Amino acid sequence: MIKIIDFQNIHTLTKLFELQRASYYVEAELIGFSDIPPLKESFEEFQQCGETFLGYFEEDELAGALSFTIEGEELTICRMVVHPNHFRKGIAQMLLYNLEENNQESTIIKVSTGKDNFPAKSLYSKNGYQFVRDLMVAPGVYISQFEKFI
User: Where are the chain's structural domains?
Assistant: First the structure.
């Protein structure tokens, strides 16, 4: 089941924070860069991020989440996380589909991921996101930017 995460529910928010850490540790290994911003933020900073989160729940367990912001007709996916115990179950795909289905007033969706995060790049490409560019964010570290017009 996918639903918007209530940031007033500290128990769920704590689980989301832990899920994010577990997922981004894997990405850090994939791209060879441990200074990914979500891995450096405190719980208090996380609480104040201002993003909307969709959570994928398997029974009562939070297995994945996607966050986004909307500015005008532009939607930006800020975070896509799946707990390593739930990789390869299609959770990211379901979150992405839910996001697109429920935000059809947006005309463009933007997202970035580590240049060497091939599973994420594959997910976005197979869902119609077009590669825009690679951007250096630290010496020798690049993110790949994608966008989709809907």
Answer: 2-149
